[in-house]
User: What shape does this take?
Amino acid sequence: MKVRLDSLYAFLYSTFVFFVSLYVFDYFVLGDQFYYSRYYADLSYYNNISDAFKMYQRALSTSEPGYFLVTYIFSNYLMIEKAYLISFINSILAYLASYFVFRERINLIFVFLFLVLNFYIMVIYFSAERLKFAAALFLLSLYFEKGRMRILLMCFSVLFHSQAIVFIFFYFVISHDISDFFKFRNYKELFFRVFLLGLVFVVGFSIFSHVQRKFIGYSLINMNYLEMIKPAFFCLIILLFTNLDKVKWVILSFPIIILSYFSGGERLVFILYFCFVYLSFRESKQVSVVNWALALYFSYKGVDFIFNIFTYGDGFKFVDVV
Assistant: This one.
């Protein structure tokens, strides 16, 4: 059986990520990981799933059911250590992401900077725990041909992190699949569209109060026009120094700039960055000057993030957890 090189490289990279994750998690003990680890350890004391979910809401100040259900099953029934579970999810995410990268035959030095040293990649692997589950489901959906499974997996990704809504919005803007949703050839397809709209409504309703609380909470902390500078500057750089579709890029950037006023630019600008990398290589396999500059900058930040983990126990240098 012939093995595609991009699949082999993706498998080797995902294996590398799995073992590196296991090693790093021994040192990442503060910041967000302090609360996630304590929550996971406390799950074993809750046999009643309803009580466990209430504890989950208190411990992590969140209500997305996807992450809770997975961790509840792995902690209470499979009795798998958290480090192994998260390292396994990291390896799946690594395989899915790197497969797309290796398939495009991009410059290997850039691939190394992007997959191994990139700051945002490091944050998703080692800090943004719920987001990594949502990102893995979203990337998995892209493996399926346009159709039911792709849409279903995208909807389920929102159950792990509400920020997946932004992923889905970007996907529809880039692919124009939103128009295909309203086209159907028979009543079977019409029934599926109605079912899917019902599913979206149920998912949206189930997380609405959570999203509302998060939005208000972030607004009280971050509501500042200065938070809009970073995504706005990033958007401007791309408009001025690249050949990307200007109209499409503005459509993608504008909601991020507005939302950053309420929730903070750092939480959202990474989506613009990944979107830019994807769009730029969809147009040309050559690494642009802007891509090189951003890759080097985020590699520097990525190395600093890992250094902080080994030095301070948290990539963001936040030491006081009490």
User: Anything to note?
Assistant: The two ends are 55 Å apart (CA to CA). Residues 1-127+310-322 form one domain. The CA atoms of residues 41 and 75 lie 8 Å apart.
